[in-house]
């Protein structure tokens, strides 16, 4: 088992030789480090594009779709962010790897529906990038259920999670959520609003916990209420986490990752114990 990034994400060591990753970066140091880490960890030899022209040619001269792009904001020939515009206009999933960052830069990046952004401002930058790549390549294994009676809220959370490559189902009520959970035992995370007309978030959590424990499924509650006691009540009802709206994208994604990482660690430990128990039984 390998641990990636600074979060301690567990990685099985699976290889992704068919994944096509483009790195749009003009720094020899960073391209060398990124290529080395992606090759040794995932078995991926990324395509290096040092200029805007290189990037366009790499995309347009190949019929193989790009799995993921890693791009600096500025490249030679695209000093005003044209490279990033090009990638996002084509709906190519993109992780921004940049040393230029201010609050207004962040707002502009997130408005483009990028996958993630990593800052080149510390010695862990490349390792954080590797973790972000790994999450994108493996998030499709996670099935997340969003429960909210607001169509706008459902669409917003669904879009955010699909951007990160998760599989997503949505329910407009607690009753529909329970039905979907019965039909989809692979759902590992529920993100539920508190205030719903049929079954509120507390009652939904209690009903879920009556059949599925925290070792099988994680639950994050969300609410726009200013009642600070909601978080305590939700956690005591069986929830694993709680967030007050409005929350920022980065915090939401980190909370989702932390809960799914915990679930993965629990299941991995259970599998190891079962393996040891079988090995201890005399033939």
Task: Please describe what this structure looks like.
This protein is α/β, with parallel strands linked by helices and 283 residues long. 45% of the residues lie in helices and 19% in strands. It has helices at 28-42, 52-60, 82-89, 103-111, 125-138, 151-163, 174-183, 201-209, 229-236, 249-280, and strands spanning 2-4, 9-11, 21-24, 47-49, 68-71, 94-98, 116-119, 143-147, 167-171, 187-193, 218-223, 241-244. Strands 4-3-5-6-7 form a five-stranded parallel beta sheet, with helices on both faces. Helix 9 links the parallel strand 11 and strand 12. The longest helix has 32 residues, at 249-280. The protein starts with a strand and ends with a helix. It holds the Pfam family Response_reg. Residues 20-135, 143-260 form the Response regulatory domain. This is Response regulator. Keywords: Phosphoprotein, Transcription, Transcription regulation.
Q: In sequence order, what are the helices and strands, one letter per element?
A: EEEHEHEHEHEHEHEHEHEHEH
> Main sheet: which strands, in order across?
4-3-5-6-7
Main pleated sheet: 5 strands, parallel
Question: How helix-rich are the residues, as a percent range?
Answer: 40-55%
Unreliable stretches covering 5 or more consecutive residues: none
Shape descriptor reads globular
């Amino acid at each position: 088992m390998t641990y990636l990034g600074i979060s301690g994400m567990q990685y099985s060591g699976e290889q992704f030789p068919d994944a096509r990753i483009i790195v749009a970066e003009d720094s020899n140091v960073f391209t060398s480090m990124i290529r080395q880490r992606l090759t040794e960890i995932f078995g991926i030899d990324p395509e290096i594009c040092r200029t805007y022209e290189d990037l366009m040619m790499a995309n347009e001269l190949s019929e193989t779709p790009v799995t993921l792009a890693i791009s600096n904001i500025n490249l030679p020939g695209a000093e005003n962010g044209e490279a990033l515009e090009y990638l996002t206009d084509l709906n190519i999933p993109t992780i921004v790897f940049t040393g230029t960052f201010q609050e207004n830069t962040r707002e502009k990046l997130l408005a483009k529906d990028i996958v993630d952004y990593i800052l080149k401002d510390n010695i862990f930058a490349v390792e954080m990038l590797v973790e972000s790549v790994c999450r994108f390549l493996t998030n499709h294994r996670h099935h997340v259920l969003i429960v909210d009676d607001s169509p706008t809220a459902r669409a917003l959370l669904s879009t955010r999670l699909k951007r990160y490559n998760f599989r997503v189902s949505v329910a407009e009520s607690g009753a529909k959520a329970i039905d979907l959970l019965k039909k989809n035992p692979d759902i590992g995370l529920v993100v539920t609003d508190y205030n719903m007309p049929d079954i509120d978030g507390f009652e939904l959590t209690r009903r879920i916990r009556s059949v599925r424990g925290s070792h099988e499924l994680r639950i994050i509650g969300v609410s726009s209420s200013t009642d600070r006691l909601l978080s305590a009540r939700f956690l005591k009802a069986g929830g694993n986490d709680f967030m007050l709206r409005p929350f920022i994208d980065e915090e939401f994604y980190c909370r989702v990752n932390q809960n799914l990482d915990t679930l993965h660690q629990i299941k991995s430990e259970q599998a190891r114990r079962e393996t040891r128990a079988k090995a201890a039984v005399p033939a």
